[in-house]
Structure formats: structure tokens, C-alpha cells
Amino acid sequence: MAGNTFGNLFKVTTFGESHGTAMGGIIDGCPAGITIDMEAVQKELDRRKPGQSAIVTQRKESDKVQFLSGLFEGKTTGTPIGFIIPNENQKSADYSHIKDVYRPSHADYVYEQKYGIRDYRGGGRSSARETVSRVVGGAIAKQLLPQITINAFVSSVGEIFIDKPYQALDFDLTESNAVRCPDKETAEKMEAYIKEVKKQGDTVGGTITCILQNVPMGLGEPVFDKLHAELGKAMLSINAVKGFEYGSGFCGAKMKGSEHNDLFNENGTTKTNLSGGIQGGISNGMDIYFRVAFKPVATLMQSQQTINKDGKIVEMQGRGRHDACVVPRAVPIVEAMAALVIADFYLMARLNKQ
Q1: Per-residue pLDDT reduced to its tens digit, 117-147
Q2: Has residue 354 been placed in a domain?
Q3: Domain total in the chain
Q4: Do strands 241-246 and 288-294 pair parallel, antiparallel, or not at all (unpaired)?
Q5: How far apart are the first and last CA of the chain?
Q6: Nearest alpha carbon to residue 344 among 190, 230, 207
Q7: CATH (domain of 187)
Q8: Which pLDDT tens digit goes with each residue over 239-275?
Q9: Could you tell me which of 301, 280, 287 has the C-alpha nearest to residue 216?
């Protein structure tokens, strides 16, 4: 099965299935001598893990990472960093009813058509549990880039949006609520709405906004490996993601060039940053910001029509433990993938100049 490795110089390969023995990964290309804060790595995993609040899946996983190689006396050795995160709370019986049935809008049908076999227990390899390994890789990448700050937050749930620019938000408030929205009033509305949707046995989507600050100029490898292209690939590889836009995004298509071009103050600082911190596929030193759209979770606690292996239309209803809205737990995943992209380009930039 190809497609399990991300990156060029700073590479992360992930393995494991939702209901297998463990999830895990290998980080290759990390420079030697980087001091790793293990508590910081675990903190990132705790932000992603299930069972952390009433609005997410109640699967109970400690998600404790175990490093197997590549670290000595708290520092990277330059060799591959191997790690696993044991699966502790699988309830495979919750999925016995879909052994011969394909869940609507899931990867069940296409996986079986592609490989001739599928692990129906929680979706197997297609499960969002795979992202736990990405978070470990991203946590290591962040420590390679201590001067760069990466802050993601939930900017919308359904029709509820933050109506403030990111510059007016206090990112320290992101972790102060279950929704991971740094605006208290909006967060309360989002949480109430998710709970309402959950009671109905339904799900809802939303968006995550991510801000990268103090990114050095010159990151990006034109023409096919532009910085925004790689960020888009990284985000679109996350389960349930349906859209990616950076800078002015789709709103920019409505503007004139005279409105869209960035304006500068006399001291050289910018009044506007519609470029999103990237020009010609290369970072320009300004804040990089982008937004990622997540669809509603496909598993509903409602009766739905689908087909079985015989091609007959049947009724099915989701069972087990599932998120009513995935975006709160996806915040650290978005940050992790952004960190992996920046770390990769950071290492590549060392090769561009003498």
C-alpha cells in the first residue's frame, strides 16, 4: 500500500489500523542533537485523543507514545525515530453489523474495490485514528522550529463563525474550551450546537484556521513544490477535509487587482496581507494563514440506506463511539501537518544558498 510517507527530507511514515495492536510511525531525516521535550510531545497527543470532552467520541485511549529508536539521553541521534502508540480500547464488536455492508460516505466500498479486502473494524487504515502518528511527527517538527509559532483554532461549526480577524484573537484561549475556539461567546454557541446535533443522532462540519508566525523568508520550492501547494496537500490528506484556502482564498476571486495587492507603510511593514504570507510559492516573511474545511462525520446514529456486498439496498444505523463534530480534535492535526511541511522546507532551504 503506497502513500504512507509524507515529506522529502523530513519524512514521516505511519502504520497501523484503528483496531490493530498499535498505531506507529518512523520519522526520518530529523537532524541530530535536537533536545526533545517529551512532555510537549505528549501534550500534543492529549489534545487529539478521544474521550477528552462530552462533544467527542467516548473511546478511551491514553495515547501514550513509546519511542523505540532515534533518541539518546533526550536528544535526537540523526537516525530514524521509531515510535508506537498502543491501541487500548478497541470495541470491534461495534462494527460487526457492517461486515457485509458499506457505510455511506465512508472508504469501505472503495477500499474493498481497490484491494479486494478491507478491515471493517473502525475503518482499519482509513480511520482518522491514523492521524495520531502524524501528531507525534508534527510535535517533533515543532521542536526543530522553536522560533516559529503555529496556532490553529476552530473558526466555524455549521453556520456559526468567528466574526473577528485573527489578529484580534487571544490564542491562549483556544484550549480554554472543548471546541478549541479562542472567542468565548462563539465557543459557547458552537458547543451548544454540537450537543444539539449529537442528540439528534446527526453530525456537523466546520472549519479550522491556522496561523504561522515568524516563518523565515525563502521557504518553498517552485515550480511544482510551492509552499502553499504542499500545505494544501498536507491538509487535504487529513480525514474528512474537503477544502483548503490560504490568504484571500476564494474571496480574492471577487476583487480587483488594485484592491488585492498588499499595501505597505513607510517603514516597510504591511498594511494588508492578502497574499497569506506566500508569493510565487515562497514565504515572504509575513504571517502565513489558511483555512481548512471539514465535512460532517459520515457515521450517523440514524437509519440510512446503503448497499451490501450483494449490491442490494439495505437499512443501517451507526453504532459505537463517534464524534458528532470532528473539528475540535482536528486542531492539533492541522498544526502537526503544517509543522511537517515547514520543517521539510526549512531543511531544504539550507541547500539553496552557500
Answers
A1: 888 877 778 889 999 999 999 999 999 999 9
A2: no
A3: 1
A4: antiparallel
A5: 39
A6: 230
A7: 3.60.150.10
A8: 999 999 999 999 999 999 999 988 777 776 666 899 9
A9: 287
